Amino acid sequence: MKFVEMSATGFGEDNLRTVEADAPRPGPGEVLLRMRAASLNYRDLLMVRGQYNPRQPLPLVPCSDGVGEVVALGEGVRRVAVGQRASPIFASGWLSGPPTAQTTRMTRGGPLHGTLATHLVVPAGDLVIPPAHLTDAEAACLPCAAVTAWSALVTLGGLQPGQSVLVQGTGGVALFALQIAAAMGARVIQTSSQDEKLARTAAMGAAAGINYVREPRWGRAARGLAGGDGVDHIVELGGAGTLGESLRAVRPGGTISLIGVLAGGSAPLNITPILMRQIRVQGVFVGHRASFEALCAFLADNPGVRPTISDTFGLGEAADALRHMAAGGHFGKIVIDLSQ
Q1: Which CATH superfamily is domain 2-144+287-337 in?
Q2: Which pTM value belongs to this model?
Q3: For the segment 271-287, what is each residue's pLDDT rounded down to a tens digit?
Q4: Exposure pattern of 20-58 as b/e (b: 16+ CB <10 Å)?
């Protein structure tokens, strides 16, 4: 087998190395996957650079998203069969219900080894069967990015047809949120720094777009586009740097799903509107297996909702893929092909 790991010498793309070793064997209750594809999330970039968890023990195989084929079963496994395609969930052992201290510590791509490997052993209970109509590259984008969007809007958010949703940016989670919300009959407002990207989101179902470079105080514009009272649900991917504008945009009693920290993790913030307008600020920690399975059922019923693949790299090009993500020019997901 081959895998990419962050070496014990330290963090950073320059310390990634490709390693060859014997393929592992599954133990009781475990499954061996021959991985076909992995995909990158911004979390992976932060992890590799030591910004997500500076105390992360090394070496570490990065990345949390991926899909593979079941090639061997450990003793007692009945849930999946050899030859099936399957994806591991983000937080090992989190099957349903609220997260626990244990499940938040059992995440792939740190502290557990991740999906950037040709072979991976996982507990059988961690596996979900992705929709058959998706390609391997598309299926590899589901476990973290798509489940996060689904959890925010549906599992936790209870999105209803006719509601308004504001989505920040055009990364993986953002485009999943756009497509899911539009397919459910919501009116989507998209923000981006580029008109070209806004045009592409309009073609994907966004009803309106805001260029936040031209309109840095975009919260007021979003409130107007939502009818004046404000947006029902905001998918907040910027973090502390954009939360102030989200508070201006959201309606009284509305929801802000706090997912990313692309614009920073800390900033001065007036929290009075949260109290005075009864705004719900919901942290979203990806999601459990039940959410992943519900998402897959939704995708099977809505085959037009598909992951948007921006770029594809090989296993040995993982450092280049991460640098490409850091540059910010991608639209959608960056995939690592593990099939070769």
Answers
A1: Medium-chain alcohol dehydrogenases, catalytic domain (3.90.180.10)
A2: 0.94
A3: 788 888 999 999 999 99
A4: eeeeeebeeebbbbbbbbbbbbbbbbbbbbbebeeeeee
